[in-house]
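Self-study notes.
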Amino acid sequence: MRHGKKINHLGRKSAHRHALLSNMASSLILNKRITTTVAKAKALRKYVEPLITKAKDDTMHSRRTVFSYLQDKESVSTLFGEVASKVADRPGGYTRIIKLADTRLGDNAEMCLIELVDFNTLYSKEEVVKKAKTRRGKKAAPKAEGSEEVTEGEVEKPAKKTKKAASKKEDKE
């Protein structure tokens, strides 16, 4: 029975599991989205979301606490700088898991994409400013010197030449 066993061990010893989650969290923070299995993504979500919440309060204590989890200076500085400023007003739910249709070739594991929510522009509620549509009507060409003005009613279309008419014209000449 699995009463009260809330953690997914991912088939690893605890030190290996902590190293895996630490490296995946660093990659997620630096790259903003990674592709992994669904089980690892769900475990990563529980690991990284408290770190993002702690990053909202930029103090030396919170930086040291987060560094003890991530063990990477670059990802800690990215988390406290770029990521924390974007999620400052969000009360939680910083990650999104999107299941992919394909499975992994070797072991048929379900694959997914885990990403930081505020860094995906596809789902943002802000309206994207669209370009003004232009009409594709004919514009008056710039007139050359010495050319005659032609109004719209006087424009003549050139007659279409058929192959027979063109060959008869050549025979006469």
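Second protein, same conventions, sequence then structure:
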Amino acid sequence: MTSSLFSLENKTALVTGALGLIGRQHCHALSDSGANVIVCDLDEDKCIEFASELGPNTIGISADITEQDSVKQLCKESESVFGQIDILVNNAAINDMFESPALASEQSKFENYPVELWKRSIDVNITGMFNCCQVIGTGMASRNYGSIINIASTYGVVAPDQALYIDENGTQKFYKSASYPVTKGAVISFTRFLAAYWGKNGVRVNTLSPGGVENHQDEFFILNYSKKTPLGRMAKPSDYKGALIFLASDASSYMTGANLIVDGGFTIW
């Protein structure tokens, strides 16, 4: 049956950044499709709490993905419970937030953007992904099976439209900083590198690039974004479940090195 292609029964999936808005949905999708799920984020207690909500075939483990020793321990603990890891979802990322809305416009300008924030984004968004792929993906390659899904963004494909952040009064409330699109572009390039490198080992590596998710943003931003999107709305957090399961499962068995863009058409014009 065609539906069996999407089954993840007897597979184990690890999701980083699992406590985030989309990360939680990734975990639900994987669990609903039959996978054992490892919920990974920085807060151990919250990982365990969320894992308990998902069901008996889920565990929560904290890790700092910027530290390779922490990722090695994560891998060791995961394998001690479920055995091999078959699916890795590199979802953890930093998307700049500024504490003071009044100062956000000036602080987010490229001319003023702190190099410390730039370095932090590279550390989490790129080095963290590298660590997880190297530690967990190496095990996949040794077994000649695995699916790695790196979460990028439409801003890894096209430049940010700064006009989206102009309110109804013509005030630039915020600038999308350089670090996010640069690191998300790197995610896509790294995916292609690994797909070529591990193709002979049966490890598929693909990118999922989501569009913007509605999450209590200012009304002017939601309207601006929706007008720029052919489907006329921002994404719901659950809109990426199907794409994730497709990439994780045998339904995409002849797909590697690809960037699956799910954005309501945002990048077509």
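Instructor comment on the second fold: Residues 115-143 form the longest helix (29 residues).
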